[in-house]
Structures are given as structure tokens and as C-alpha cells.
Design goal:
The structure holds 2 protein chains of 2 kinds. Chain A is an alpha/beta fold. Chain A has 6 helices and 16 strands. Chain A has helices spanning 33-36, 84-90, 127-138, 159-163, 183-193, 205-218, and strands at residues 8-20, 23-29, 42-45, 58-61, 64-66, 74-79, 97-104, 116-122, 142-149, 167-172, 179-180, 198-202, 221-225, 241-245, 251-255, 262-264. In chain A, the strands form 3 sheets. Chain A has a 7-stranded antiparallel sheet with strand order 4-3-7-1-2-6-5. In chain A, strands 11-10-9-8-12-13-16 form a 7-stranded mixed sheet, sandwiched between helices. In chain A, β5 (64-66) and β6 form a beta hairpin. The longest helix of chain A has 14 residues, at 205-218. Chain A starts with 7 loop residues before the first strand and ends in a 22-residue tail after the last strand. The model of chain A has no long low-confidence stretch (mean pLDDT 94). By secondary structure, chain B is α/β, with parallel strands linked by helices. Chain B has one domain (5-63, 81-205, 228-308): Aldolase class I (TIM Barrel). In chain B, α4 (114-124) packs parallel to α5 (153-167). The model of chain B has no long low-confidence stretch (mean pLDDT 95). The chains are: A alpha/beta, B alpha/beta. At the A-B interface, loops of A face α2, β6 and α9 of B. The structure holds flavin-adenine dinucleotide (FAD), flavin mononucleotide (FMN) and FE2/S2 (inorganic) cluster. FE2/S2 (inorganic) cluster binds next to loops of chain A. Flavin-adenine dinucleotide (FAD) binds at residues 42, 56, 58-61, 77-80, 82-87, 124, 127, 227, 229-230, 261 of chain A.
Chain lengths: 286, 319
Amino acid sequence: MKINRRAQQRTVEIVSNKRVGAYHHMIFAVGDMALHALPGNFVAISVGGPGSAMVLRRAFAIYRTHDRGNYGGTLELVVAPHGQGSKWLTALPMHATVDMVGPLGTSFGIPTEPVNALLVGGGYGSAPLFGLAELLKDGGSRVDMVLGASSAGKIYAPLEGKRAVNSMTITTDDGSAGTKGQVVSVLAGLIERYDVDIIYSCGPMAMLAAIQDIATQTGIMHQCAVEEAMACGIGVCMTCVVPLRDETGLVKMSRSCIDGPVMDGASVLWNSSGKIPDGTFGAPNV
Amino acid sequence: MELSVRQMSNFNYSTSFQNAVFPNPIFTASGCAGSGKELAQFFPLTEIGAVVTKSIMVKARSGRPTPRMAETPSGMLNSIGLQGPGIDQFLAEDIPFLQKAGARIIVSIAGESVDDYGSLARRLRGVPGLSALEVNISCPNVENRGQVFACDPIASRSVVEVVRRVLGGELPIIVKLSPDVTDIVSIANEVIAAGADGLALINTLLGMVIDIDTMRPKLGGKTGGLSGPAIRPVAVRAIYQVHQAFPKIPILGMGGIASGRDALELVFAGASGVSVGTATFGNPNAVLKVKDELANLLIERGFTNFKEAVGFAHRSADV
Ligand SMILES: Cc1cc2nc3c(=O)[nH]c(=O)nc-3n(C[C@H](O)[C@H](O)[C@H](O)COP(=O)(O)OP(=O)(O)OC[C@H]3O[C@@H](n4cnc5c(N)ncnc54)[C@H](O)[C@@H]3O)c2cc1C
Ligand SMILES: Cc1cc2nc3c(=O)[nH]c(=O)nc-3n(C[C@H](O)[C@H](O)[C@H](O)COP(=O)(O)O)c2cc1C
Ligand code: FES
């Protein structure tokens, strides 16, 4: 696999930065980078400004893009102020500029025939699902969505996004919105009710692994966007690897910034953080 | 910025490591440029002095488990563990791409035993289009209880002797040293005696980060190599000491270089070439940026030839 052929490096301007619940919804004027982004792709942003002690880029899933408007092409992100880098980014004022590389990585595969799709997002993992929902709807598919987070403020679900799907289910760990519990607890019911053919997901690795268990039990396809720590986002550092089975059955430590972030859930060897699965290409002999 | 470089068309930016000549002295750093393909998306590889490949081993290697990185103040720790496809696939896939792209190629090799280094040199001897070999000896020697070659003068010497014997005078050998030693000059002395044509300084420094939430080491491999601007003064010192002791041996300097001014420090300390590693993770065009900025800084200071600046910090004040 190669790096996204559309990827470019650009200085981009912030044209909107609004707090929404626990997140910041940020809009950047990115020119023709907006033309080439697909749902599932991400961008990598350098943080901290010149001379910053933060030397690595931060990756963010693309929420949506617009080809042309008052600011030309725009690209939107949903950012959680978490550590130093994301706090710096979300504190930037209008018209500040950042260095962005994108679009990067793989995108969600869109079926050629209409299907019944279930989209599952954890926390800010909902961001790339709204653009995906639009594409699926345009292709005649039924789209149901389930979003989960620890509490209500961490559910990102804008009104127009809610309208774009056939149904929206919310779960929170503390019960402050929707059903109390985790997203996986409601999946089996939704799969049956909507006769789901394919699950698309984005969120923490543990959530994706649990969804794959259900997908395996029910024999449903599952495409997920993984989130492994990335140092470069462009395929040159080998930090972001996950064990992935290729077409020939060989398991390789594969770069999630190039072979992902969107991967076939059934091809990922889950729960292998901290170990190299036996039989992986080049694994130490035991 | 680019203008002044063009105006000074009589500025000679070329450098050499023994018989290998490069149009400019700015290279990638081993393990920080993927297979070359990824960076070719951002600039033509012919623009930079050379591509130094990730260290290749005899057999395929999965590398260490994740998490493999932790950002640290002005740097990062990595515990990749030399993930790679092994020499066969490397020769079949990576090298042809670099040849076709017209890149000048320095292949980095790494082994678990002295024999491994010999086998790798044998496979690379005669491969067309290679400029030099970089020998990464910062690897555990399985034949000596995992002691890192670069920390053991005798083992370092044995590795370089074998590679020299296999290659004859065909390809320049650049031996990459670890800063994690008490006396880097004495290790340099051993590998030069064994036939090294040049030295690469410095590899990463061993470090650790503990996650205060899990209360355990953060990296899957527990320890990792520290790189980035945080280690630059260590690189400057190591290069200065080694150049002082062996002024005729060309040095490829690296360690935290992100700008032309950073590179200039290494050049003044004694580097004939400069590799850019971690900075590429923050900026895909970092290698080109360093190349342009360094040329401008040299021209501003009245140098007409890059080589005149190498080791300048060693000259006495009245010269
Ligand atoms: C493909 C991908 C998509 C992402 N999309 C979004 C998004 O849409 N919105 C959003 O808010 N965040 C997203 N993230 C997480 C984001 O990249 C940062 O990791 C997060 O903002 C924390 O960075 P920090 O500097 O604030 O925290 P720090 O804790 O200071 O980060 C230190 C370092 O650890 C890395 N790191 C820490 N936590 C994670 C994690 N969970 N996953 C990966 N790397 C981590 C950081 O990249 C950084 O290099 C995404 C990450 C990836 C890999
Ligand atoms: C992710 C990563 C992978 C590396 N892989 C190798 C390698 O395979 N062989 C090697 O000799 N050095 C390797 N290095 C060390 C670099 O080549 C370089 O010596 C070091 O990082 C210091 O330079 P920098 O601060 O510019 O990165 C690696 C460094 C990093 C950060
Ligand atoms: S983040 Fe560097 S290779 Fe994927």
C-alpha cells in the first residue's frame, strides 16, 4: 500500500472554532484539499507553534468537507481538548493558521448496491460517520446510527446529522442521555430490528474489538476506523501498527496510517496491544 | 529564500564520503523515511543528498508490540524494534523503487550476530546504484547475552572487519555509533582501525517513560530510543569529540536536526553530512527545508564551498 495519493501539506486558516458540548467543532479553509477527502480519511496537524516542544503531529478524523463556500474549500474537525496538543489547537482564535497534511489514509468502502447499514460511533468517533451516512443515503441505503460516550456532553450529534439518518440511538455510561450502558449492549437488538448487512464503526480500540465480536457472531461485515498512536501519519515511522491479516492469510504488523485507519474488522487481530500475535510475519521464533 | 541559493550559483554544496560523492550533504536518517516511496509524494528524492534506508536485517522482523511511541519534551521515544521485510524482499521491492526514482542510496544494515553483517554485505555487494553502506551496530548481539555491539569495542571491531573483508574496497562503509557509551572516541578508534571509511553519529539514546495512570512503562517494549531536538547537544558533543580525534574521517551527523541552523552546528562540529530523522515526522518536507536553510546560512557567512565549513568550530579564534 502507498500513502494517500491526494495528500498535500498546506498552511490552513481557521474560519470557525465553536465549543459543542465536550468538543470543539473547527472549520479550516483548505482549498482543494477538501475536494479529495473521503469519509474515513484523516488529517495530521502540527501543534504548539514554532519552537514548540511537541515534535509530533496529531491526527484527526475528517468530520466533513465542502468544496466551495465563502472561504473556498473547507474541512471540519471535531476535537476533544484532551492533552497539551489538542488543548493548544482548540484554544486557537479565528484566522489563526496551522500546518495540515491531508487527506491521509483509507476511507470507508461504499457498497455498489443499497444495503442496511448500521453506523456506530464512540465519543468523537461519530465525526466521520455523518459524511459516510450522506454517501450511503445517496446510494439508496438505509442508515441507522448508534452513538455512545461516557456522558451526554461527549455525544457529538448535530441536528442536521440526526436528520440525515433513519434512526438514531444514544447510549451513555452514566445514563445522562439515551440508554444507560455501552453501545455494544444495544447492537444485537438493532441488528435484528433493522436487518443490518454491514456495520461501520469509529471509536476507541476496545469498542471496535467488542463490535467485531458481535459482527463475527452474527456473520455481518464490519468496517472500522482504528485509532493507534501515530507519530507521523505519513507512513515513515512504523509506530502506528496493528496486526492485520492480508488476502493470503499472512498476519503483518501494518501501518494504520496507510493500510488504515479504515480496516476490515475481521482482518484485525484484536486485543493484541502489548504483544505480537504468534505467527505474525517476522515474529520472534518461540 | 530559494533566490539567494540560485544567485550564489558558484556555491559548491557537494560533499563526499571517501569515493561516494553527493550533490548536497542533507540525507534522510535511517528508519525515518519509510521505504522512500512515502516521502516521494512530497518531493523528488533526487533533491536530497541521499536516502538512508531503514536498517535491513537478514530475516523479516515483526518489531516490538505497541504502543511503540511516546512523545517527550522536544523529542520522542520509539520502540519499533527494527520492523522490516528482510533482505530478500528489500532487494526485490525497495531498492528498485529507489533506483528508478534516481535517488542516491545508502543502505543501512543491522544484525544479531557478526555473521549476519557478513551475509548482508555479501547480498549488497554488486547491487548497482548504491552509494555507501551504513552499518547500524546499536543492536543486541545474541551471541553475547544481548550486549549491544556498539557498546562493546571488540564486537564493534569484529562486525566492521567482516563487512570490510566482504566488500573489499567496493563501497564506502559508514559505521553508526551509539552515544550510550562512556568513551565514544575509543569505539570510533576501534571501528576505524577495522576499516570504517566514515562514522554516523548519533543513534538514539536509551530511555523510558512511565504512564502515571497505568503505573507501568508506557512502551510495549518498555524502553525506547530517544530522538529529536532534546538530543541535539549530545550529537554536537559526540561529533566534536570524534572529529577532533580523527579529523580526516568523514562524519554523517544526526540527532534533533529540524532547521538549517541546527545542521550548521553539526557541520561546525565536524559533520560532512547531516541526516534528518524525527523532524520528518513533524514536517514531511523537513529534509528539503534543512537543505535550503543550511545553504543560505553558509552563503550568508561567506562560505563558497560547503567543505570549508566542516569542523570550523575546531579552528583557533585567530584563523
Ligand atoms: C486516526 C486518528 C484519528 C483521530 N481523530 C480524532 C478526532 O477526530 N478528534 C479528536 O479529538 N482526536 C482524534 N484523535 C486523537 C488525536 O490525534 C490526539 O491523540 C489527541 O488529541 C490527544 O493529543 P494531545 O496532544 O492533546 O494529548 P497528549 O496526551 O499530550 O498526546 C501525546 C501523544 O500521544 C498520542 N496519543 C495520545 N492519545 C492517543 C490516542 N488515543 N490515540 C492516538 N494517539 C494518541 C498523541 O498523538 C501525541 O503524540 C485521532 C487519532 C488518530 C490516530
Ligand atoms: C522511529 C525511528 C526509527 C529509527 N530506526 C532506525 C534504524 O532502523 N536504524 C538506525 O540506524 N537508526 C534508526 N533510528 C535512529 C535515527 O536514524 C537517528 O539516528 C536518531 O533518531 C537521531 O536523529 P533525529 O533526532 O533526527 O531523529 C530511528 C529513529 C526513529 C525515531
Ligand atoms: S504514523 Fe508513522 S507510520 Fe503510521
